[in-house]
Amino acid sequence: MKLTCLSKGRGFHCPPCHIVEIGGFRILLECPVDLSAVVAFAPISSDRTGIEIAGNGEDKECSFLSIDALIDSVPWIKTVRSLGLWDLSLFDVVLISSPMGLLGLPVLTQSSNFSAKIYATETAMKFGKLMMEDLASMHEEALQFHGPEDNLTCPEWMKWSELEKFHQLIRNIIVGKAAEDIGSWFPLYRRSEVSECINKIQAVKYCEEYCHDSALNLKALSSGLEFGACNWIIRSPGQSLTYLTSSIVKSSTAMEFDYHGLKGNEFILFSDFSYLNDITEGNDEEAPFDEALSSREDDENLDEGRELLEELDKINFICCSAVDATRRGGSVLIPIGRIGIILQLLESISQALEAAQLKVPMYMISCTAEEMLALANVIPEWVCRERQQKLYSGSSMFGHGELTKDNRLHTFSVLHSYDLIQAWQEPCIVFSPHWTLRLGPAVHLLHQWHDDHRCLLVMESGVDEELALLPFMPMAMKVLRCSFLSGLPIKKVEPLLKFLQPKQILFPEDLRQQMPAVQNQAPSYLFYKENETLIAAATNDNVETDLSIELARQLRPRRMPEPNLAISRLQANLQLSNGKYLLMPQKKTMPDFAENGLIWGSVDCELLVQRLKEGGIEGEVEWEDEEERRRVRVGTGERAVVELAAAGRTVIAAAEEGVAAVVFEAVRRSCDGV
Question: Is 43's pLDDT higher than 60?
Fold first, then answer.
């Protein structure tokens, strides 16, 4: 098996991307886009202001950054850098583990060279479709403001003469530190391209096992990260791989992490880089790994719900801050891109407002708002057990339905609609895209509220905060920056891997220093790096195969001295069926006498004489003490002799070929064999 890590990702919204070669198939794992790079573009209707950017090294010479330094053009999206170096026609399968992992698929499906089969869970596909349609809608708004693009292959801002004029921060986002990212930019897709992409995806249901090309078995199990997010089990004849993505053991919205179903595979590809992203963003509050592990058993360490309680505390803090802002007469803008967090905030904020006896309207402004809320109520297999119990008891799994009926929550597709203008009241709480603060209704609302100290912006981590807020400076509006759980805590990684019991673990080199316990486990850990190919040898050369019923009925097995072991000789055709080898009977029947038959054990002389007699030939036994061997004379006139040595060697000497065949058959029937 071969593994090539194309990207470590950039957190929740840009998962890692890999290429795996297993069982003769080349599989692309994820196809994300780095939407955090969109902050290099200027939003529409920007005032020309500037801020001081703290620089280091070569950035010191140009520390003042104004809105003029941003790219004043239609935003493009940034794909995985190394993916463009691969021939798309060589991919056989694409596996998607979350809605965020398919946002870059339209870039692939537009290529005439791309013919791979795409697999994603049905729920991830539906939510991903809504997210892509939302991006396409915001792209249309940007086109209306900037006008159609003249050059879709190399826009003006991508030319080297223009790149040299940009601030170092902006230039690093566009081309990278070594100018390796310039070829990873693509125009944002349109609605028609989204539909074409979705039509090429094979939807897989929860825990459904799907067979690709009769040779590759694929199975999706919940990762707990988001609705429809999953870990994949990939099985081919002789090899099995667990693709372990960013996972959350317990969630208050999505189905919990189903790690029991991942147990027992040969390889594990560990692809959860969330801990590194937390360190980069300064959100690491975990205790040292060895200390956290020393006082707990593996399974207890996996199932504890401390992270869930911390997540609920964050939600409650956001709710309290929102209530305080509305009590002061200010409005609240929440441009968060996580579906599960949005649903939690809708419930919790409404309860907090009711407890504070405040009648503040909540608005959700997005072209896919109604579809997203409706979809969340029809995916019971992907929600947590507590919300499933609500459904079984006759209640709604989420509270947004009651909020809509009570006119406390209003959904609108666009900001400038007549219905919204009629229903608009301030102070209010608004949920709207986009979390980058460069697209969608959030841009217009920020321009309106940024100088009001009573208002509150709830900002999601994953984007450069100073750069994201640059177009809205000076900023009197209060900003609450939140970081939500995006994967396994580092202290739970080793207990999980011990529980799953793989033979080899493909582990990120970047996490090696964070987990000293893996340093002394070199045989079972193989460490991979970005843009390097790792070869993992199979740990078992034996191949298991199934027998068809017809072939099994033809077998005449002989029991061996060892318990529960029998052996039989057969001739069959080897076929692939549902990812497993299958032995099917041949049309011609196997002859009763086999020249190359396998015979073992010692020959009983008395039994041999009896077998010869059954064949119509008389025989007698002679014993030679000196050479410790026995001799069976067959017939009269020394027609044939069977010599049985003590070392186990048997020699048949006969004058006629026919007699030799009869004697050989008697010897074969006198000892064990197939």
Answer: yes
